[in-house]
Amino acid sequence: MSKQANIKRGVSLYSYQEEYFTRKLTLEQCIAEAAKAGATGIELLPEQMLTGFPKVTDQFVDQWFGWMDQYGVEPVAYDAFLDNKLYPNRLLTLEENVDMMVRDLKLANKLGFKVLRTLVSTPLEVVKMSLPYAEEYGVKIALEVHAPFTFGTPWFEERLEYIIKSGTKWFGIMPDLGIFVKRMLPVMEQRYIRDGATPEIVKFVGDNYANGFNKQETFETVQKMKNANKKDIEYAELAKHFVYTNPKILKDYIPFIMHVHGKFYEVTDSYEEPSIPYKEIIDVLKEAGYDGYIDSEYEGNRHIQDFMEVDSVEQVRRHQVLLSNLISK
Length: 329
Prior knowledge:
Helix content: 40-55%
Oligomer: single chain
Order of helices and strands: EHHEHHEHEHEHEHHHHHEHEHH
Distance between the termini: 19 Å
Radius of gyration: 20 Å
Strand order of the largest sheet: 6-5-4-3-2-1-8-7
């Protein structure tokens, strides 16, 4: 019998990027909106939202913890980026990469985060050399499992093998729910049609995807269609980058899961995400005894910007309701 699940709800402030960019919301207001939606955890992209990054003043640190208290939330995940291509003429050296990771671990520690998200592109060697610092600063490094990569791919297996063999407690995984896209995104289908794609071809690509057909073959079929235009071909190409993984796989990795990105593209007014099978995912996490956060991560904004006002606040609110309904069932 697996231990009792303890699934908590957070928000990645990445979700509010539209309003933050257009100056509708300040960092404090983003935190306030997350709390208002019922979340208790905050995930931050410091590069996006911290003035003067990577330096922060003591005054800011005090203000940050003040906000945490005021809004009844806690810092849960720090999203780091490894800027390997900082210079036009060379990649960063291993040492420079590790220095950057250490810089982020220090800042995460200063702001009270217990988990640091690192990207799929982070070389394993960099993680290995950063683990002593992760331990020193009390911040776990969680590898984001993000489409088009997923569980079972050579990239993933190599990292999992290292985690198991080394026995480290400071390196684990962070599944992004975008690896469970069961059908193509309605918001994206509609965007492509508005941009001139042929509705029948968009439907053909979507049906093939939902039925698990080979995405490369679908792409080649569309390429050969007499009536396919540039947008149709682009859409069929894009579909190749989405993946559907069976949510049951999550239970095999529960001991290594440090955090979950609740990726979503849209939540309808009946509180459903049309492309990601949330109920199945949450059921597996509950059954397997997951103890940690799922953070709302809204990514539908870019598909609707062309014709309507983006309302990330409402989308996150709906997503929090969706999560709450499924977790408490």
